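Board notes (copied after class):
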Amino acid sequence: MSLNIKKNCLPSQHPDIAMTFTNIGLIYESKTEWQQAVLYLEKAVNIYRHVLYPNHPILIKVEPLLARVSSKSKMT
């Protein structure tokens, strides 16, 4: 399902939207487009923090990913 469809059909803080943001961030990371990757990963983390408990496995994976990509974006 595309991001636009999800945004139209789901609440703005839905985990599926966060997952899509995470995947888009990963795509930008693979293309070494760090700033775009950070933008989408921050959106994902903000939603995950709103809807998941603090030690949720998804947050445990995505927060370090955001930190790594953010540090790469600062080096360029």
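Comment from the instructor: The chain has one domain: 12-75. The mean pLDDT is 95.
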